[in-house]
Amino acid sequence: MIKVGIVGGTGYTGVELLRLLVRHAGVELVVITSRTEVGRPVSALFPSLRGHTDLAFSVPDVKALAGCDVVFFATPAGVAMRQVPELLDRGVRVIDLSADFRLRNAGDWEHWYRMEHTCPALLDEAVYGLPEVNRTHIGHARLVANPGCYPTAVQLGLKPLLEAQLICGESTIVADCKSGVSGAGRGAHVGALLCEAGDSIHAYGVEGHRHQPEIEQGLSLISAGTINRLTFVPHLLPMIRGIHATLYARLADPEAISLPEIQTLYEKAYHDEHFVDVMPTGSLPETRSVRGANHCRIAVHRPGGGDTVVILSVIDNLVKGASGQAVQNMNIMFSRPEREGLDLVALLP
Amino acid sequence: MIKVGIVGGTGYTGVELLRLLVRHAGVELVVITSRTEVGRPVSALFPSLRGHTDLAFSVPDVKALAGCDVVFFATPAGVAMRQVPELLDRGVRVIDLSADFRLRNAGDWEHWYRMEHTCPALLDEAVYGLPEVNRTHIGHARLVANPGCYPTAVQLGLKPLLEAQLICGESTIVADCKSGVSGAGRGAHVGALLCEAGDSIHAYGVEGHRHQPEIEQGLSLISAGTINRLTFVPHLLPMIRGIHATLYARLADPEAISLPEIQTLYEKAYHDEHFVDVMPTGSLPETRSVRGANHCRIAVHRPGGGDTVVILSVIDNLVKGASGQAVQNMNIMFSRPEREGLDLVALLP
Amino acid sequence: MIKVGIVGGTGYTGVELLRLLVRHAGVELVVITSRTEVGRPVSALFPSLRGHTDLAFSVPDVKALAGCDVVFFATPAGVAMRQVPELLDRGVRVIDLSADFRLRNAGDWEHWYRMEHTCPALLDEAVYGLPEVNRTHIGHARLVANPGCYPTAVQLGLKPLLEAQLICGESTIVADCKSGVSGAGRGAHVGALLCEAGDSIHAYGVEGHRHQPEIEQGLSLISAGTINRLTFVPHLLPMIRGIHATLYARLADPEAISLPEIQTLYEKAYHDEHFVDVMPTGSLPETRSVRGANHCRIAVHRPGGGDTVVILSVIDNLVKGASGQAVQNMNIMFSRPEREGLDLVALLP
Amino acid sequence: MIKVGIVGGTGYTGVELLRLLVRHAGVELVVITSRTEVGRPVSALFPSLRGHTDLAFSVPDVKALAGCDVVFFATPAGVAMRQVPELLDRGVRVIDLSADFRLRNAGDWEHWYRMEHTCPALLDEAVYGLPEVNRTHIGHARLVANPGCYPTAVQLGLKPLLEAQLICGESTIVADCKSGVSGAGRGAHVGALLCEAGDSIHAYGVEGHRHQPEIEQGLSLISAGTINRLTFVPHLLPMIRGIHATLYARLADPEAISLPEIQTLYEKAYHDEHFVDVMPTGSLPETRSVRGANHCRIAVHRPGGGDTVVILSVIDNLVKGASGQAVQNMNIMFSRPEREGLDLVALLP
Q1: Model pTM?
Q2: Residue C308: which of B203, B231, B240 has the nearest Cβ?
Q3: What is the DSSP-derived secondary structure letter of residue C78?
Q4: How do the pLDDT tens digits run along chain B, 349 residues long?
Q5: How many C-beta neighbours within 10 Å does residue C6 have?
Q6: Which residues, numbered 312 to 331 in chain A, qualify as contacts with chain D under a Cβ-Cβ cut-off of 8 Å?
Q7: Which are the contacts of C181, defined by CB distance < 8 A and separation ≥ 6?
Q8: CA distance C192 to C238
Q9: Which residues of D touch C48 (CB under 8 A)?
Q10: What is the CA radius of gyration of chain C?
């Protein structure tokens, strides 16, 4: 049994981790911390967990956490970097769902997150936890930086095109992304109220979103440095879960490849990936088809047979975009079957 | 392995049965029928099932169904009663999610469903599939009439009060019930459009709803004939899943019992019931706390310490209110652990 | 032109007042205050008002407000009572959308609102601003206490029954009320987040809600003291605007009156009331049929011809339940046509 | 008074026309037709109109319509073209909200709408009713083809860039568009059910949508033939009203122009347009800021100061995207003030 701790369990990625881990046969949940809810049973805050766990929130405490095999951080930016070094020193492995270790370059991180990074030395060691790109390194990692939700949907959507060097390097890829409100977290802010976000849509972060450098770093790695930039515009939608990435890329040589060939390229690329589902040509994936499940569903289009390929990529931002992917990483790190605890059917309708 | 067939798998109770059964370790899904989708893979209609089943819809055919141990009917009223007798004759057990066998009195049924009942003789044999009331009979049943969604929430909410004869017989119980739109099914009708049912609420069936005689029959049985009527007003809400029953009952002798005693009564009544969760006094159950789960959560109130008890009872209409309860019944009928395949954590948020 | 000031214009009743007043031909908006948004144009906070007003928020200042003919308070409980006396002294009339002057009894008010009332002497003078009950007094009032949203829907729904003394005095009226989330205001609290209140429903305030004494005070007045209590359970719904009150009352003498006679009673009672629409018998009013409009729509039912009458009453909580009613009161106070600025068609769909 | 008829008043554009026209001081509503609802009062189908009109639906009848000054067609494709010629012959002017007269080329129309055009000769005469492009011609038109919802949002969003020839002709403009479900109409189809479209998003029409040739025809005209194509991907969102067009265009000469200059270009272009609101640089327009209003709000962005300009353009698909624009066209045709009956404040929240 893997002994598991969770730091910061009162947010949406926290309760989603709990939903997955209480039913994971290989996991023993040992400790879950929250400064604000100390002593309160987890199931009092989240009645969905009544009957599934007796755990109560405890004070964040290195000693208690040090008894774990792995600790998940489901905390705001800037928290994990302060606590991770000590846990690593004590032999605890860490999966950080926050952004603290996602960017390799400390300067970039400090620019986007507007604080000093307290352990930049760990940025080199941290493994970016996108299993479909990085599985081998994840297996040996002490510290996994779990990807952001948008970066997961965008990178998985573009990976086969990038690896095959099919995209025109001079053009700009457009990633027009749509997210449910749970991506904004469980914090009380006006913009996430039902009366503000309901029955409406708006873009945000057009002039710069923290996921942009993370995506660009990933695209660069996957494309061997040939694609280093994109235009990324996220939108807030009146729904709870789900990310829909609509990806536009110009083909470097439109004559050289047909749509069925691109489809085949995708099917081959993800043939052995259980959690990436390349749908038949012409499909229009709905975010609800992955609601509560750890899958990414992808469909490939080429409108009018033109120069532009349109990739549709959907995930549940709280599962494949956060907590499900974190559990997938844990399974890899501890040599468990990768699907263990993740064999969930999406809730439809 | 229980060999299972499903008749009418294109609606919401059908896809919900599939969601539960594809992950049930004791079940082999053998056949699923649909007149309109013959030959189409189930996962083409419901992409949430991609990777979980290879089954395709087939023509409703007694021979194929006769090879099953149990057949679920997820059909409109009037379909099951035409096919059930032949299946029973061939030794197949049946769980009917429709209303065909819920009322004991054929005349009542014909009045409310406005058609002739083709096998009234089976109404006596059919067992009303509310396990918390009828578990023993369900175990031996050939034919189980799976309860309606409102009747499940209302009966479970009132059962302890009724059994203890605490309700004033002369007064009228009020069941003010609120349902998500999935209760209306997957049929294309204007009233269930997002633009009609969205961002609005209205009552319906105030002058008479088909679930009323079913509820009254149940109240009468549970109360040993002392309570035979109620005022029942259902409402349509802008949400997908969930039923919230707000139940108002006057105490026969308000002086004779205190709120803590009523709370204890409920806790004892459901102490051994895994799927009925009596919450602490003062709780305000949310339907989302059972979204996708087979639980009924109940809270007991007595506003101002007055004569009226208010019981709040929530279920997921597609799970405990339909397909989950059907699987629970199957487990009982085939001596499987009652929770098998139903140990689901609600999807929150 | 009526010179109008608004205190506390950053909440939902504030912006709704603005929506109505910027198009009111008899009104000149002079000042709108907010401590938190001083200097910011109103249309910067609410882009829906771009092009409709150039006003900016200013510091709450008695001098500026003293130049108005009438000041609306759209503030949390406890604010108006501190500022109203001075404004009245300066000859300014006041319409208070908060609860500060709704209860006649200072002790009751202090019990429910948990603070000391700073000007209890004004409670006698304040006129309860439900025009369909109190029109004459409103016309002469210096200080109008604008009713709460639930109280408006419940009192209008029950008034004809109460006035005709048809309800059994010993029984308890049940008011099962459902509200959209805007009733909770524009404050940032977790329970009103789209991810918390979305796709779910729950009851609240079952053990006591501040609108209960207001409703009971109103029922008592309307019924000449024969009905002084009710059971009131509000519910939070996943929608933005709208209140649906489902009202259950037992007839004192069921044999003495028929449903058509009750229908006629309602039609006569509201024959001259432009903003109360008694729908045909059997109607099922939707809250969206009054979305953005100042109407209350009512339908009368008597299920199964029994002892219990069911009244369905719907309003837009921000219009007839708050700002629209406040404008209606202003029109009456200043001898303008009662419908002026309120002749709005509901937004459907 | 303009005598107005409406053909096909039972859909969402029909009821929206009614909402606007019953309050239009210069209009007399004379006749509204519907084959399915003959004899039924309009307010029985749409209770939001109770008290606003006594009109009942009548059989579509040329004689009755011939007494009108103008007839609106709010009908499915293929209906208007059969009735318009006779009305024009009788001197009635026509505003067609359907697509029958939007494309100049009959062959294109027949390709996209898959039926024969019955009066191709009128395609030349028909004036495309986008006032901000075509005001003068609209004033004299006998037949106005009211633009589609997506084409309105996209053309208004791109017009200043196109007229100034700032877009790189070789690149592809991307129009990633998001629509509420009311764009799908009031017909009963499964995809528009609350349980299908709720809490989810998906793209559609990626391989070709009927609005694409309409948009391309418009871009070509506005750009003097320099831009003739775009990549257009519409998405269905879980909301009732609203279109959000996110427009991506590469600058032909990025060095030659700055973002403030582009902002100024937009502000000048729409300086005299009451219904087009160019928001300050950096704004993120929400669709709800135009809910129920006839405005298009536009914001200009240039992420990272790069080659790509991002324009955000929002409308209410039923108002500026359909019925509001139709009324605006009527006002122009009959020399009424262009804002008459359209001076609506958006419903927020």
Answers
A1: 0.97
A2: B231
A3: T
A4: 999 999 998 999 999 999 999 999 999 999 999 999 999 999 999 999 999 999 999 998 899 999 999 999 999 999 999 999 999 999 999 999 999 999 999 999 999 999 999 999 999 999 999 999 999 999 999 999 999 999 999 999 999 999 999 998 777 899 999 999 999 999 999 999 999 999 999 999 999 899 999 999 999 999 999 999 999 999 999 999 999 999 999 999 999 999 999 999 999 999 999 999 999 999 999 999 999 999 999 999 999 999 999 999 999 999 999 999 999 999 999 999 999 999 999 999 9
A5: 32
A6: 312, 314
A7: A193, A194, A195, A198, C192, C197, C236, C237, C238, C239, C240
A8: 9
A9: 288-291, 293, 345-348
A10: 20
DSSP labels for C141-187? -SEEEPPPHHHHHHHHHHHHHHHTT-B-TTSPEEEEEEE-GGGG-SS
Dihedrals phi, psi of D71, to nearest 5 degrees: -120, 130
A195 touches chain C (CB under 8 A): yes
Tokens at residue D266, please?
């937009």
Identity of residue C344: L
Closest C-alpha among A189, C272, A328, C342 to residue D23:
C342
C partners (3+ CB pairs within 8 A) are: A, B, D
Shortest Cα–Cα distance, C204 to chain B (Å): 6
Q: What average pLDDT does the segment C278-306 reach?
A: 97
Question: From CA C33, how far away is CA C11, in angstroms rounded?
Answer: 11
Identify which of B183, B274, B185, B173 has the alpha carbon closest to the alpha carbon of residue B230: B173
Neighbours of B208 (CB within 10 A): 12
CB spacing of A239 vs D240 below 8 angstroms: no
* Interface contact B306-C196, CB threshold 8 A: no
Q: Is the pLDDT reported for residue A170 higher than 90? A: no
- A203-243 pLDDT, tens digit per residue, is 999 999 999 999 999 999 999 999 999 999 999 999 999 99
Cβ-nearest to D193 among B192, B199, B239: B192
Distance CA B289, CA C202 (A): 10
Task: For residue D141, give how far its alpha carbon lies from the nearest alpha carbon of chain A (Å).
Answer: 34
B224: left (phi over 0), alpha (psi -120 to 50) or beta: left
Nearest C-alpha neighbor of D84 from the set D38, D111, D95: D95
A280 DSSP 8-state letter: P
Note whether A241 contacts B349, CB cutoff 8 Å: yes
Q: Are strands B173-179 and B243-250 parallel, antiparallel or unpaired?
A: antiparallel
Q: Is A149 a catalytic residue?
A: yes
The two three-digit tokens of residue A60, written as one number: 């964040």
Partners of C6 in beta bridges: C32, C72
Of A199, A201, A284, the CB nearest to D178: A201
| Domain regions of chain D by residue span | 2-125, 150-316
Question: Computed over its alpha carbons, how large is the radius of gyration of chain A?
Answer: 20
> Which CATH number is A150-316's, of 3.30.70.20, 3.30.360.10, 3.40.50.2000, 3.40.1110.10?
3.30.360.10
Q: Out of A68, A119, A149, A296, pick the active-site residue.
A: A149
What topology is assigned to B150-317 in CATH? Dihydrodipicolinate Reductase; domain 2 (3.30.360)
Assess if CATH 3.40.50.720 describes domain A2-125: yes
pLDDT tens digits, residue range C63-102? 999 999 999 999 999 999 999 999 999 999 999 999 999 9
B193 φ, ψ to 5°? -65, 150
The Cα–Cα gap between C342 and C294 comes to: 7
Closest partner CB to A240 (pick from C186, C198, C239): C198
What are the residue numbers of the active site of B?
Answer: 149
Residue D196 contacts residue A349 (beta carbons within 8 Å): yes
Q: Which of C14, C90, C25 is nearest to C57 (CA)?
A: C14
